[in-house]
Design brief:
It holds the Pfam family TOBE_2. The chain is of the alpha+beta class. The chain contains 8 helices and 20 strands.
């Protein structure tokens, strides 16, 4: 692994609080890894330790085989992009990008070429002579990114890089950032509390909670095979049901819990349900939320709330209406094991279970 983290822990003595507990994982060269978790999960503290802005209480880490403890922060080859951009107000975009190169005493011709290239790469060529207060939030973040990678860092760290931007700009920059990092081949770690941001952007996700790693995997693995109930609830939108009676599944003895994604729930009105109803379950419509192309339907399933997605082109539903539902797939949590199951329709094969580490 290009970045290797080994049993890192961190305790703040003044607060008497442990914020990291025995963190270990690796990051492959050229990949984009997300540290995902709620506020207070320790993800920013971990990033600051790697950058040399904090010191670990225990454990070690290395970048490209070299222990970070043996290298001063300024010599670790790290580029850092902050949530608040941290651009120098009285320097132009060009001067901000050139700043790190000048502090490394690079030749003037090299600085000019590098800054010119980065201005073009980040789409800021026409804004080179503007000051930060003359830029939009998205333009500021592009400038901060260009400044961070200008000195050719080994790795790039980004701390909540899109948090200060509105939703549309965040979505645009996610795609832009992922493409650019892969184009440059720079190993990157970014911190976020937004599961959609992590799923859309990262090659791998490290889910953290209360200073511990809960699960590590690709976005697909994290979304489809959550290792514990925390991950099941935190990643994406899902319903968590307690010991439900459901047709079509080989469920364990009670008590147990299940996670159901709304896209895995089909709704049938009485006039349009399949002839084979053995695998259907009865529910009652509690609410219908129009979202444009889709609707979110809140269902009452024997006193528990279940969410379902439904096309706006399908027949409308009425609050209080009784419907039949087909849950295609769910995850069962019982005794430390998550079991990914499909409804046992004749044409389907059950998916394999997987053990929670």
């Amino acid at each position: 692994m290009y970045i290797q983290i080994n049993h890192i822990s961190k305790a703040f003595q003044k607060e008497g609080q442990n914020v990291l507990h025995d963190i270990s994982f690796g990051v492959q060269k050229g990949s984009l890894t997300a540290l995902l978790g709620p506020s207070g999960s320790g993800k920013t503290t971990l990033l600051r330790i790697l950058a040399g802005l904090e010191t670990a209480t225990a454990g070690s880490a290395s970048i490209d085989g070299q222990a970070i403890e043996s290298v001063t922060p300024q010599d670790r080859g790290i580029g850092f992009v902050f949530q608040n951009y941290a651009l120098f107000r009285y320097l132009t975009v060009y001067q901000n990008i050139a700043f790190g190169l000048k502090t490394h005493h690079r030749p003037a011709a090299e600085i000019k070429q590098r800054v010119t290239d980065l201005l073009a790469l980040t789409g800021l060529s026409e804004l080179a002579n503007r000051y930060p207060d003359q830029l939009s939030g998205g333009q500021k973040q592009r400038a901060a990114f260009a400044r961070a990678i200008a000195p050719h860092p080994k790795v790039l760290f980004l701390d909540e890089p899109f948090a200060a931007l509105d939703k549309q700009i965040r979505q645009e920059l996610r795609s832009w950032l992922k493409q650019l990092i892969h184009h440059l081949g720079i190993t990157s770690i970014f911190v976020t509390h937004d599961h959609e941001e992590a799923i859309e952007t990262a090659d791998e996700i490290v889910v953290m909670n209360q200073g511990r790693v809960q699960q590590i995997g690709t976005p697909t693995e994290i979304y489809n095979q959550p290792s514990c109930q925390f991950v099941a609830e935190f990643i994406g939108h899902a319903s968590i049901l307690t010991s439900p009676d459901l047709n079509g599944f080989a469920l364990p003895e009670k008590p147990f819990t299940v996670q159901v994604r709304p896209e895995r729930v089909q709704i049938f009105k009485k006039t349009g349900q399949p002839t084979d109803t053995a695998h259907l379950t009865i529910a009652t419509v509690k609410d219908v939320i129009f979202r444009g192309a889709t609707m979110t339907v809140k269902l009452d399933l024997n006193g528990q709330s279940l969410l379902a997605n439904r096309s706006a082109l399908q027949p409308g539903l009425v609050i209080g209406e009784q419907v039949s539902i087909l849950i295609e797939q769910l995850v069962v949590f019982k005794h430390g094991t998550g079991i990914l199951e499909k409804n046992q329709l004749p044409t389907t094969t059950p998916l394999k279970s997987y053990a929670i580490n």
